[in-house]
Amino acid sequence: LTDAPTRIQKCIDLVQKSNFNSDPFLKSFGVQIKGEPVIVNGRVLSPPRLEYGKGNGGQQIVLTPKDGAWYSNEFKFFESAYCESFGFVSFLPPHKASML
Question: pTM score, two decimals?
Fold first, then answer.
């Protein structure tokens, strides 16, 4: 894994190398790219609790994801619902795409 300061520096270097501000297409729309990242205040949110139906012991199962993942193979959803479609965005590097 790459640490955050190294990743941000790689992004800065890539923007500088790309020289977006000299791109005629971007210029035609008045788009300009700053060479440094925008700093915003933020916070890490706690993961939501996941409620499942009653387990083998008759008690409702409540899980809290850890590191963005959880196992639910042996649990039924507390209240099932129909989902016509869904999507997600993955920021994994290509060599980790098999994790999806």
Answer: 0.43
Q: Look up residue 22 and give its two tokens.
A: 């000299």
Q: Look at the chain and report how many structural domains it folds into.
A: 2
Dist CA 51 CA 37 (whole Å): 38
* Mean pLDDT computed over every residue of the chain: 84
Q: pLDDT (tens digit, 9 = 90+) per residue, 57-79? A: 777 888 888 877 887 777 776 67
Q: Are residues 73 and 97 in the same domain?
A: yes
Based on the domain organization, do 95 and 48 belong to the same domain? Answer: yes
Residue 69 domain boundaries: 44-100
- In SS3 terms, the chain reads as CCCHHHHHHHHHHHHHHHCHHHCHHHHHCCCCCCCCCCCCCCCCCCCCCEEEEECCCCCEEEECCECCECCCCCCCECCCCCCCCCCCCCCCCHHHHHHC
